[in-house]
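Sample pair:
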Amino acid sequence: MDRVQRLYKLRDILNTHRRPVSCRVLSEKLERSESSIKRYIDEARDYFGIPIVYDRKYNGYRIDTKDGEIRELPGLYFNSSELYALLTSHKLLSDVQPGWLNKYIAPLTERLRQLLDGAHKHYAQIQQRVRILQIAARPANLEHFQKAVTALIERKQLKIVYHGRAADKLTERTISPQRLVYYRNNWYLDAWCHLRNGLRSFSIDRLYPSAILLDEPALEISDAGLDEHYARTYGIFAGPVTHTAVLRFSADAARWVADEHWHPQQQDQVLPDGRFELRIPYGDPRELIMDILKYGPDVEVLEPPELRTAVMRKLHATLDIYSKTPGQPDN
């Protein structure tokens, strides 16, 4: 029986006995020393607000109810493994977006520590043993991030100044946030853009600090509509599906690619010679091309011709760089 279970059993014993229960009886029922029982009683009082009082007349403990009210422990029940998982999740969220939840979740984290036997030791182990490795992450400003989250949760429009990388210019927009997405180590806000009159994805790190939370309610897009726009095509560049890429991987790469999930609507097959063929719907090819290039000679684009040509251009441009003397400037 772990600490949380004992707290609940302590509550149940005191609730079901008509007279106060002595520390000796509680010690026997909970299989803990009398000093431990006193610590549990203090914890039930201090952290859960259970009004356990000592009755001198009966030399025992009881719950001091008012008007017949019976105080309860919090409705969520956690065993030790579940508490470890919650603390680990907090570690994950803290590392993914430092400072985001600290203000709000710190009291809960402390409460979770208190519920665990040797809590500080266990939490220290989580801090020491759990590592979140982010590659090519672009840190999001905490103020920008919190404004985006506030607009998203409160269903309000957000006025932003956005620096788009593709056009390399600033635009002022009013958006209706729909979803917050953590994709490939970076945060994106899927939103209806009232300037472009359509759904767009905004990289949180490209928001400027002048974002203003507006009183106007956000335009609501159904989950089905969002999935239709964002989930059908490949990668972060959402839009209508216009092509299907057919990729053939070598037998050596197939050992890894066969276990990967590139797209919800992908079609794949292992060929008789051990190679692996993958079909992926896409619209904007930019991200797909980057992923194809990662596999170098272990992948070939079979279809469509324009994707094959685009990959060939990238490979030729790379070869041109390496055919020069190192550090030689372009003509």
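The chain has eleven helices and eleven strands.
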